[in-house]
């Protein structure tokens, strides 16, 4: 499994917590017809994106980007000790996959300068916090945690109507510990990291573009979940809050990076996850590098 990539003066590490079957393809992607699945089953199975019962295989991972100045962690996965009764593979987990994967990439939790969340879904905020003496504390003690304001406001409002457990156990404790930066779309870290708004999956979903002068790498979060969505950008996932907007954002993003040298780093594509966007027919492909 390839875990380390270079782009310009950046080094990118994949920190994999799980890579596993998730949901049946037709369930996750409601617009996927039996015919389109039949046409694509061969390459999807061969590349580890689909199992032999048509269930999608996804990676659940963070990326750590080492710039000349900072060590930045993007999306913090599932986490341990968190009650997630709807997802047995995530519920009250106690394995050491994640911290072991971070250590084998050469990082301790104290090394992370920034944690940046593309959005605030359960599998992108989990390791923001860990349980210590019955309290949720920031896992990365020296990090500033970057949350997009539109995204933070959306979940604040949802949580006021009905409690959103990952927001309560994995986002709010970071805010209470005064480690958060709630930022607008003009947020940047020096000339190396900036925000690219990519709404649809959630209202405040953002991608993060890295590299000086040009986008050497882009971290696209849940703008797409499975490689088949590059071939058919209009296929939205059932978890996309606004499926029409998500489809438009997805095509725009793929068009923007198509036939460039930018490394595209989606959150959930199966290993090796990272590729370059190339045109293919009326859609695109994320070509392994
Ligand atoms: Zn996700």
TrEMBL record:
Residues 59-268 form the Metallo-beta-lactamase domain. Pfam families: Lactamase_B (PF00753). The keyword Hydrolase applies. CDD domains: metallo-hydrolase-like_MBL-fold. InterPro entries: MBL_superfamily_lactonases, Metallo-B-lactamas, RibonucZ/Hydroxyglut_hydro. Keywords: Hydrolase, Metal-binding, Zinc. Belongs to the metallo-beta-lactamase superfamily. This is Glyoxylase-like metal-dependent hydrolase (Beta-lactamase superfamily II). The lineage of its organism: Bacteria, Pseudomonadati, Pseudomonadota, Alphaproteobacteria, Hyphomicrobiales.
């Amino acid at each position: 499994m390839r875990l380390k990539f270079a782009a310009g003066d950046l080094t990118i590490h994949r920190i994999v917590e799980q890579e596993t079957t998730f949901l049946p393809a037709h369930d996750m992607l409601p617009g996927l017809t039996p015919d389109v699945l039949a046409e694509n089953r061969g390459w999807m199975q061969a590349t580890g994106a689909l199992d032999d019962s048509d269930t999608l295989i996804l990676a659940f991972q963070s990326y750590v980007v080492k710039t000349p100045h900072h060590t930045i962690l993007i999306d913090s996965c599932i986490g341990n000790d968190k009650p997630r009764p709807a997802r047995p593979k995530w519920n009250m987990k106690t394995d050491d996959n994640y911290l072991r994967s971070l250590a084998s990439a050469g990082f301790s939790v104290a090394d992370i300068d920034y944690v940046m969340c593309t959005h605030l879904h359960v599998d992108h905020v989990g390791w923001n916090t860990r349980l210590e003496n019955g309290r949720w504390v920031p896992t990365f003690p020296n990090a500033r945690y970057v949350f997009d304001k539109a995204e933070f406001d959306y979940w604040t409002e949802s949580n006021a109507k009905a409690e959103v457990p990952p927001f309560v156990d994995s986002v709010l404790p970071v805010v209470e510990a005064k480690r958060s930066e709630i930022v607008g779309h003009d947020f940047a870290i020096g000339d190396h990291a900036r925000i690219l708004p990519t709404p649809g999956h959630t209202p405040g979903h953002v991608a993060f573009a890295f590299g000086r002068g040009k986008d050497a790498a882009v971290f696209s979060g849940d703008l797409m979940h499975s490689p088949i969505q590059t071939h058919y950008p209009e296929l939205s996932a059932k978890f996309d809050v606004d499926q029409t907007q998500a489809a438009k954002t997805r095509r725009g993003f793929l068009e923007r990076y198509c036939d460039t040298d930018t490394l595209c780093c989606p959150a959930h594509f199966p290993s090796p996850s990272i590729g370059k966007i190339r045109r293919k027919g009326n859609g695109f492909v994320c070509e392994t590098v």
